[in-house]
Amino acid sequence: MLNIREALPRDVNDLYELYMEHLTQYPTTEPQDIAKWADLLANLIANQDYHLLVGEIDGKVVSSVTLAVIRNLTHNLRPYSVMENVVTHSDYRNKGYASAIIETASEIARQSKCYKIMLMTGSKRESTLRFYERCGFNMNDKTAFLKRL
Which pTM value belongs to this model? Predict the structure, then answer.
């Protein structure tokens, strides 16, 4: 059974493997020293508006998603959220783990009183886009643009 929880410092090695080897569409970053990753992870964990969720099986992190909660002045500071980096270890795909972790992140957004969640993906694969639609996301409501800095 998948155990979903907020990431902990001890997850650094599993997260490193997950992002470097199983986020196949668009690698997130160049490989870095694991000690630096541990520092970066500690920084994220300390931010109460940033949620790095992990799904673990038998103590191994096999799935992850990030959710950032952002206050919005035009909604009287009621927040919205951005979800990214949905990834599941290739040996554990097609078991419903990504759907479960997305639903947990969505519940955090609801509890934070977010009025919307924006999901970002670099994938153009039809199967991936349909998966997100099955999770309740609509790609027709907004248009996203990306400017790399």
Answer: 0.91
